[in-house]
Specification:
about 80 residues, mainly alpha, single chain, DNA polymerase, domain 1
Amino acid sequence: MLDDRHLDRALWRSRRGMLELDLLLVDFARCRYPDLAEADQVAYQQLLELDDWSLWDWLQGHAPPQTAFARIVGLISAFNHGGEA
């Protein structure tokens, strides 16, 4: 079960050096992270270890994400574009 510290950490780590990513990731983490399957939460945490420019390119569809991150990138993109996540 997700505890408050776990969620707080995900929210804190979703804050990036790029405002545009903050807007995409913080809202996703706040609204969807608590309900993600554990595997998707792990993938999200690992995604946050990557550099901002890779994340930005993937989330904007400028480059395909690494296979390990394809599902979580898809969930974030769908959430931010009004689709089901």
